[in-house]
Amino acid sequence: REAIDPTERDLTVPPPKLGTKIRVNEFAPGHLDERGLQSPVHRTATIDYGIVLEGEITLVLDDSEVTLRAGDVVVQRGTDHAWANRGDVTARVVFVLVDGVYDDQLTASLPAGALDGLMHGGPRD
Q1: In 3D, which of 57, 107, 51 has the Cα closest to residue 78?
Q2: How many Cβ atoms from other residues are within 10 Å of residue 38's Cβ?
Q3: Which pLDDT does position 77 carry in this prediction?
């Protein structure tokens, strides 16, 4: 059997259709952009569970921010968001992403173009 090079795997953020993806992300302190963010503002058609293992991380939403610490869990349900480590130690967070589809009623309530920025693709069938 031929060995598979682990660097040749799919590195996209969302899970496959009807699937899940688990990631452990490390956010080093600093590395913030001019808006004070460490990740781009993004949205995925998934339900995401974020579990903070170490350090602290700030979840930035359209109208609020919340700082999460080790042991905190957040459920992110397809809204625009970004992350920022504004502390002085590395934040380690486990993310469990579960594939989803935006319900027609929710899609209709979003501002025009809101789903154009879905990370790695648009709404899925």
Answers
A1: 107
A2: 20
A3: 81
Domains (range + CATH), the chain = 22-103 (2.60.120.10)
8 Å CB contact between 24 and 42: no
In the chain, alpha helices (H): 104-109
Q: For tokens 């339900």, name the residue.
A: 47
Measured CA to CA in angstroms, residue 113 lies from 1, 104, 109 at distances of 47, 15, 11
Distance (Å, rounded) from C-alpha 118 to C-alpha 100? 12
Among 2-6, 10-14, 25-29, 116-120, the range scoring the smallest mean pLDDT is: 116-120
Instruction: Round to whole Å and give the CA distance between 82 and 109.
Output: 21
Query: 76 versus 104: which is more confidently predicted?
Result: 76
